[in-house]
Amino acid sequence: MSQLRDITTRVEAQASFGFGHAQIVRRVWSEPIDVVDTSAQHRLEFAMLPRSAAARGCFPDCRGIQQFEPFGEVFFFPAGQLVHAQSRCRQQVSVVCSFAPEAVENWFCDGLRWTRARLQACLNISNSTIRGLLFRLGEELSNPGFASAALSELLAGQIGIELARHLTGIEDAPRNGGLSTRNLRLIDERLGQDGTAPSLGELARLCGLSVRHLTRAFRASRQRSIGSYIAEWRILRAKDLLTSGMSVGQVAQTLGFSSSSALSSAFRRSTGHRSRDYLHSVGRLR
User: Are residues 86 and 161 in the same domain?
Assistant: First the structure.
């Protein structure tokens, strides 16, 4: 196995806190990635575009999850856990939050034992709240405003607490009638595909469940309706595309909305603002 050799890393923005730091990191690799490593800090990463669909990883020291599985858009490397990562990606821009284990220990009420289910879930943190907070933190780091340092620290702290809640809840989901980690991942992978939003029937078939069971189990897992989750996921994706340079019309077409006005209406229902207002907020319109 080849180890990662030639990598160029540039930190484009950063903020430090008492419990860790947050950065926007641009990496360029001259060869495919194949690396085994551990981190001294807990590291949460939101991989923004471009990203490689071939990225995969495993935890070699954990019995039962030595097989590679795909990385999600948001993934987490616990401190001290050996991870093996592979990818054909040659460049990546990410929002990275690093947490000092001793500083955030009180967030994990049971010490957070790294069970098989929890480690497997780390490869794909399928939580729209965490993703949304990371996106917001990335915006603040890139375009700091009034009291930016204080706001960035608040966002990073909320991200860490939401992550702790997400991971400590992994063991409880099956006993409480929630969806399995596999089915939650399947739903997020489907929502990650551009085009028309999936119907409940499609997602139920994907999970091998009835629509009624899916909706009840999803609410038990996420404490929210699957309809609101789908809507939020699509608006987060719309924000990504708008920020990348697409017009409102192009985003509407990419995400399967019937028109630009339909996208704007969905945007307003979710955020309270029009899509054009969002373009103003990120500096795309003057």
Answer: yes
